[in-house]
Structure formats: C-alpha cells, structure tokens
Amino acid sequence: MKTHYQLKELSYLIFTLGKEQFAVNVNKIIEVIRNTELTEVPRTEKYIEGIINFRGDIVTVVNTKRKINLADKKEIKNPVIIVFELQFDGKIVRLGALADKVKKVIEISEDEIQAVPDFGSYFNPEFLEGAINTPQGFTMILDIEKIFSAKDVEIIKKIEEKQIEKSF
C-alpha cells in the first residue's frame, strides 16, 4: 500500500527591491503600510531608515536594500513598509522593512522551493530560505529572522526606548 504525503501549502508575500523580486512568509507579517511618514533617527546604523507610529507603538523601519547588501541606487518614490512581528530569544520584536512595491500573495507547496543559488560574496545566502519560479519571475525567499542579528534587535530596542523617553 502506497502512502501519500500531502505537501504543505505555504503563503508568501511577493515584493520588489529594485529590480529583484523577493518573498516572505505571511505568518511573520502584521500589515503592509503605504504613504506613512518616517521620522529620522540621527546617529544610528546606516540601514535604519527611521521610526513610525504603528497602532500607538514606535516601530523601527529598516532599509531592506542596505541590510541585505543590494545596490541602493535610486530613492524609492512611494515606498511600502512591511511590518513584521518576529521572535528573538523569546522576545517579540516588531519592525518595519522598506520595499519598493508589494506585488501579491501566492500559495506554493514546499516542493516548489528550490535550493539557494550561489551568489558569491555579493549576497549573503544565509538570509535566504530558497527560491521559486513564479509567473512573475524568479523570486528569492527571505528568511526575515536570519536577516536580523541579536545586535540588530538590541539597536532597534534602544531606538524605540529613546523615542518613548522623549515623548514623556
């Protein structure tokens, strides 16, 4: 008797950074925000774009292109902020990631995910879960929790704490 294993269907949000197309698991996403004003934070890491008020909380926004080492050639006219809720060392961290454009949510099965291609030293393959071919083109799947280290989370928490202190 043959046993059939049902492959898990996974939902991914497809978005663009420059000419590249990426996807992230929707389970990590709280919301996609458009037309939100960022408040700059002086004297911080280059990849920190600023902060936003998100549902009454301060959320740090990261320039995703800079963080993953993609060329940041031109400024995005109408950036989109993808707000994530991530877990680090048992703590929940909310952060925003800039994207040029959000395309759509797709459903894919686990067997459609291909191994991470070798990009050499240009791109850190540890940030990727894999890649998929979609009707929209070749798409790299980001592992959003691997993009941010414990040091990054510490920086983000300090920025948010300083902003909370300023508001009192």
Kindly describe this structure:
With 168 residues, this protein is an alpha+beta fold. It has one domain (11-167): CheA-289, Domain 4 (OB fold (Dihydrolipoamide Acetyltransferase, E2P)). Helices cover 15% and strands 44% of the residues. The chain contains three helices and ten strands; from the N terminus they run βββββαβββββαα. It has helices at 64-67, 144-147, 150-167, and strands at residues 9-17, 20-25, 29-34, 48-54, 57-62, 80-88, 91-99, 101-109, 128-134, 137-142. The strands form two sheets. It has a five-stranded mixed β-sheet. Strand 4 (48-54) and strand 5 form a beta hairpin. The longest helix has 18 residues, at 150-167. The mean pLDDT is 84.
Secondary structure layout:
Elements: E1 9-17, E2 20-25, E3 29-34, E4 48-54, E5 57-62, H1 64-67, E6 80-88, E7 91-99, E8 101-109, E9 128-134, E10 137-142, H2 144-147, H3 150-167
Parallel strand pairs: 2-10, 5-7
Antiparallel strand pairs: 1-2, 1-8, 3-6, 4-5, 6-7, 9-10
Could you give a short description of this structure?
The chain has 168 residues and is an alpha+beta fold.
For this entry, give a set of tags.
single chain, 168 residues, alpha+beta, OB fold (Dihydrolipoamide Acetyltransferase, E2P), five-stranded mixed beta sheet
